[in-house]
Write a structure and sequence with these properties.
Layout lengths: L1 E6 L2 E4 L4 E9 L5 E8 L6 E6 L6 E3 L7 E6 L4 E6 L8 E9 L16 E2 L3 E6 L1
Parallel strand pairs: 2-11
Antiparallel strand pairs: 1-3, 3-8, 4-5, 4-9, 5-6, 7-8, 9-10, 9-11
């Protein structure tokens, strides 16, 4: 089992940047494929970005491609989301998620139901 704690959320003006972090504990961090999801009020939780256990494969939601970058540092048990050129529509609670992976797999998983473990979320608010 892994415990996940997000940090780095806050309020920023449109066009600004934030970097979210997700610290993992428990089993070896690179045993998990990881993802960032977000949920705005009244909307479904949606994929922001996903990354394979070794970090070689990434996947992004269409609305954030070219603006957000997912990365991980397995030595530090930490997942990151660099968010640039933020827009008001990026306002949401951002969650990190983990899925135990096949050690021979380099997949990044894009579906919410793929993930077994979730953090508590961190609020990101972008004002115009």
């Amino acid at each position: 089992q892994v415990q996940l704690v997000e940090s780095g959320g806050g309020s920023v003006q449109a066009g600004g940047s934030l970097r979210l972090s997700c610290a993992g504990s428990g089993r070896t961090f690179n045993s998990y494929a990881m993802g960032w999801f977000r949920q705005a009020p009244g909307k479904e939780r949606e994929l922001v970005a996903a990354i394979s256990g070794g970090g070689m494969t990434t996947s992004y939601g269409d609305s954030v491609k070219g603006r957000f970058t997912i990365s991980r540092d397995n030595a530090k048990n930490t997942l990151y989301l660099q968010m640039n050129s933020l827009k008001p529509e990026d306002t949401a609670v951002y969650y990190c998620a983990a899925k135990p992976r096949n050690p021979f797999s380099s997949r990044a998983y894009s579906e919410r139901d793929d993930y077994n473990y979730w953090g508590q979320g961190t609020q990101v608010t972008v004002s115009s």
